[in-house]
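> run fold Phage tail protein
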Amino acid sequence: MSQMTQDVDTAVGVHFVVSIDDTNLGAFSSCEGMTCEVVMETREEGGNNAYVWQFPTRLKYGNIKLSRPLGANTAKVAQWVSSMAAGYERKTGVIEAKRADGSTVATWAVIDMVPVRWTGPSFNTDSPKVLTETLEIAHHGFTVKG
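> ok
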């Protein structure tokens, strides 16, 4: 295989394995919302009509949404979400993007994860579909693990 072919990684057939504090929540078929935004504060300076000063203030992270068909690991997610009723504890998590053969494409460490929403399947006998669940997680940032 040439060096150029090895550098191209299209991540076709990827799934996302999620764990929190060494508890494996299983594989998810989609992962959305891994965003990071630098919040800018603007200041206008009297007598300066050429531009407005812009200062970076903090980082803002979007919620991560993970989806998959219902399965055996749904109970682990339900247990984590329902544990919030007794008070919450932020968890450290890992999201791994994996190819179909099990090799890892990328790994992110997610800091201070808290479940904010779980959406279960819609049951409708008129429209047979795969039953899916979606887990939405708030966090205080992520880092790419080497």
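The radius of gyration is 20 Å.
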